[in-house]
Amino acid sequence: MNLRTLVALWKANVPHWVWIISPAWVGAVLLALDGASPNWGTLLLFASTILTIQFIAEFANSYTDREEDAIYGPTNTLVTGELSPDTARKVFLAQNMLAGILLIALLVVTLNYLLIAIMLAGWFFGLAYSLQPFRLKETIHSPFSHGIALALLPLAGWLIIAPLNDFIIAFSAFLFLHSYGLGITLKFRKTLLALDSGLVKLEEGRSLYEIRTIGFGMKFRNAMHIEAMTSLGGFVLVPIFWHLGVFAAPLSIALLAVPLPLTALAVLVRYQHPVKNSSVYKILMTVAWISIVLVFLGSALTSFVYYSVAVLICLLFLFGFPLMVKLVHPWGSKSLGGRY
What we know:
The chain is an all-alpha fold. The protein has one domain (3-328). The protein has 15 helices and no strands. The chain starts with a helix and ends in a 12-residue tail after the last helix.
């Protein structure tokens, strides 16, 4: 296997998304430790396992979407020819075998059956989202599977250190709601690209709001309402959790001060013009979601390092994301106008 193939495999595993969602479980690990020193061997085994499962979920999407990505993701290395389907299939099977071995090893080391069950659920949803016979990404359950897979990450990170408690369950519920909305956002992007490319046609006299979103099935108008209710609805829980003593004041204030305004602005521009503002909306919603997990990570880091150092680490995650995107997608994202 030459260097070009290895690079193509790395890209097909979509490392930028694995990178930016990692604060969801890293933050949980740090918060559960609460300043204590971990068992480094067990933690390393856990990190290897959860990262492998994350890569599998992204690789499954790259592999199964290799034909339609000529429109939706033309920088997919299975589309550009950098990676052959046969090689991808073999490596994908090897990755899943490795995940199974790592999970068995983690079970033997920890005897934590709830942790293994949650990680198995994450593995299942990562595969079922893209692969037949489930192919959840093309059903009305798509945002749910997207949301639940992301919400399981902090639960797993917490369980490797400590038993579940009200705080981590509450945060995972909040993360699920916002992730559900983000899952719908991704379907809007796909629908508008299909409309722009002629795969979906708007019949004369019909409104854009009446067409059905690709991979969700709901009419555009209804999907917009659910997207807004779920992505904003989670923030209603934050002051409630704060009042009940489940969320600490710094975390609650940070969530309401950064991700909430970004999400509200995203919803506003969506309702102003769902097509014209689509690219802006996608960016705002993505940054809002990223800011949630970075606020979570930053809150956890302050138990170990100075506030300024915690901010620098969060900025490293934030700025590392677009840099990795540029490496994986050197052509950029396809615009609604059909240009790169």
